[in-house]
Every structure is written in structure tokens, then in C-alpha cells.
Amino acid sequence: MSRIKLIAIYLPQFHPIPENDNWWGKGFTEWTNVTKAKPRFKGHYQPHLPADLGFYDLRVHSIMEQQASMASEAGIYGFCFYHYWFNGKRLLQGPLDTMIIKKTPNFPFMLCWANENWTRRWDGMEHEILVKQEYSPEDDLMHINFLIDNYFSDSRYIKIKGKPVFVIYRPTLFPNIKKTLKLWNFQLKRRGYPGLYAIYMQAFNNKIDPCEIGFDAAMEFQPDFFEAPRSINIKGSILTRLLNKFRIKKSIYTQNRVLDYRLFINHMIYKPSPEYKYYPCVSPSWDNSARKVNATVIHGHTPELFGKWLDATIEKYEPYSEEENFIFINAWNEWAEGNHLEPDQKWGSAFLDKTKAVVNKWNKKFQ
User: Fold this and answer.
1) What domain range includes position 232?
2) pLDDT tens across the length of the chain (367 residues)
3) Which one-letter DSSP state was computed for residue 113?
4) Upper half-sphere CA count for residue 48 (Cβ side, 13 Å)
5) Which residue, of 95, 117, 157, 234, has the greatest Cβ tally within 10 A?
6) Which alpha helices (H) appear in 237-349, and where do they start and end?
7) Helices (H) and strands (E) in the chain, counts
8) Alpha-carbon distance 192 to 190, whole Å?
9) CATH number at residue 277
């Protein structure tokens, strides 16, 4: 695509690691949560079960090659892999390291540092820290040199005017993010790069001008529940509908927050864009009931509605330059959050097919 590049966010949680074996039980992967899911209300689509690729194990490298082929065929430009770094300790790095060593698939990629504590989030114990995230100038230097040596130097790594694109999930957790970015840019220039192209994710209602904190741009992180309009209702039992009708806050009596996908995307399509530089994002669906008691579900998602959102986003979006032209899709394979482009047993490849149809439509207009 000449005008925009679609980047799908990629979760590497689909292979066992010793840490997860210890914390969650032998052989734990994302599929462990996925297969436990059950419907919680009438018409609730659960469990989300994979189709074409099955319950894959990312230790088998041919899986990633198939994923890249499927994504490319659907008009997706590249993947944004979650990167887990804890003061030199890495987690879930195996699939990406294998991709670097084998030099396949030949598919563009970037990294997003998920820079928060590793907690017992999957079973609701978010305050129990398993691996702590700590910051220091020494770690900043070690980290950027590691990234340069292992990832940024790869020809497939996505760059803007020679600058590696690097996404930070939660910039507000840094003691001084501007100082960190200044050090990283300095080190990159010492190593022969023009600098770093830093993007921060607008998660947790963090929406400020990226220039104020030293970033080049921001990116939406969808679904953005902080932008959800009041007209999106909590559905389910009679009790939850009554609580919502009288605008009583969600309590212990309301375990599931259920939003309407059609209303949600209409609000996102028509909301005003910020004046600063940011990249839009769309999401095929959301349902984290596979791993949370107090779940948030976007109900009623369909390939047609997703296609409508993607199409409207491309129409509205004006790239900042020939290379600053990303639109993100969250996500490629967040199966335990019911958020995936990969084929499932309900929709098959329909979400990928719709993505391809929208891309082809706009390709013709760009020519």
C-alpha cells in the first residue's frame, strides 16, 4: 500500500517458558486461558477457538512463517511484537529470536516494550508482582545497546528516515522518560543511526502531546474504553440493566461490562483527531472473559462492522509523510482477550478477508 501501512500488534505468549510453568502450571500458554472460557450471557460468543492454525506452539517456526504469509495476503504491512525486558531479563523472546536467527519470514516488524511489572493478572491478582520493572541510566544504556545489536540492525526492522521505530506501552512509569529517550538517541547516533523514532501507546487514558515528553508520535490503543460514550450500555441481567439505567456505578453485583460494538465503532469513527502527531488504531473485537472474572466484552462484532471501522479510519487519516503512515490493528492474536484477526471457528478467515477487501479498495484509489 503506497499511502498507509497496516501494522498488526502481535502477542508471543503461545509457547511454554519456565517462568510460566512455575507461576501457572506446567505447559501454560495463552491457550490455557482460551480453552477455559464459557458464555456468560445469552448470545455471548465464547470460547474463541482457532481454526486454520489450530492451537499452535510458537516454538515451531513455520507457524510464524504462515502467520506472516496470511497477514501479507490480507494487506498488512508488518507486525508489532510485544517485547518484555526486565533489567536484562527477557521473557517470551524465543519466537522473535528464532525469526532473527533464521532470517524468515521476510516480513517487516517493530517492537513495543511492555514496560510494566509482570503480575498475576490472569487470575485477577494484579497486585502480586512476579517480575518487577525497575529503571536506571545503566539499564537504559544496556537495553538500547541490546536492541541495536539484536533487532534494530535487522534489515526487516521498520525505520523512518533510518530511525528504528520503537513503541513504549506505558511512558508514565518511567522516572524521567525524556532523559531515557535523550540517552537512547545519543547512543543510537554514536552507533551510526540518525536517532530513534519513539511512539507511545495511548493506554490508561494517557493522552498528551508526544513532543511534551520527548516522543515523535503517539498511537491509539484500541479498544479505548475511556472514550466509550454513555450511550453504550451494560447488558446482561435485569439487575445490570437497572443499575445502568439509573447510572449507578458498577458494583460487586455487575461482573460483566458488555458494550455494543456498533455503537462503539461509530463513536470512534466520528470522534475528533488530536492536533499532535498520532497514529490511529482499530480493533476487530474485545472479550477478556477468558481470563477475568470482572470482564469487559464488546458484543456484536462482525467482519462487516470491522471493515466499516477500518475503511472510515483510512478515509479520515492523513499520513504525515511517505514513511509516517501507520495504522495499527490491535491485535493479530490476542486470543484470551477475544481480539484477533487470525481465523477462528466462528468466522473463519472473514476478518482477514474484509481487511484485504478494504485494502484493495483503497489501493485502487491511491493509484
Assistant:
1) 5-366
2) 458 999 999 999 999 999 999 989 999 999 999 999 999 988 999 999 999 999 999 999 999 999 999 999 999 999 999 999 999 999 999 999 999 999 999 999 999 999 999 887 655 455 788 899 999 999 999 999 999 999 999 999 999 999 999 999 999 999 999 999 999 999 999 999 999 999 999 988 889 999 999 999 999 999 998 877 654 444 444 434 444 443 434 433 346 888 999 999 999 999 999 999 999 999 999 999 998 888 999 999 999 999 999 999 999 999 999 999 999 999 999 999 999 999 999 999 999 999 999 999 998 887 7
3) E
4) 27
5) 95
6) 238-245, 261-270, 303-316
7) 10, 18
8) 6
9) 3.20.20.80
Residue 45 to residue 331: CA distance in whole angstroms = 18
CB-based contact 170:203 (threshold 8 Å): yes
State the pTM of this model: 0.92
Residue with cell 515523535: 216
Interhelix angle 350-366/61-73, nearest 10 degrees: 50
> In this structure, what DSSP letter does residue 134 have?
-
Q: 290: which DSSP letter? A: G
Cα separation values, 189 from 38, 153, 164, 195, 197, Å: 52, 13, 12, 6, 12
Collapsing DSSP to helix, strand or coil, 39 comes out as: coil
Helix (H, G, I), strand (E, B) or coil at 221: coil
Look up residue 45 and give its three cell numbers.
460468543
Q: Are strands 89-91 and 118-120 parallel, antiparallel or unpaired?
A: unpaired
| Residue recorded with cell 483527531 | 273
Joined grid coordinates for residue 222:
484500541
Tally the residues of the chain.
367
The Cα–Cα gap between 14 and 162 comes to: 32
Q: What whole-number distance in Å separates Cα of residue 332 and Cα of residue 79?
A: 8
Domain count within the chain: 1
Please name the helix (run of DSSP H) or strand (run of DSSP E) that holds residue 61, with its range, or none: helix 61-73
The CA distance from 6 to 77, in Å, is 5
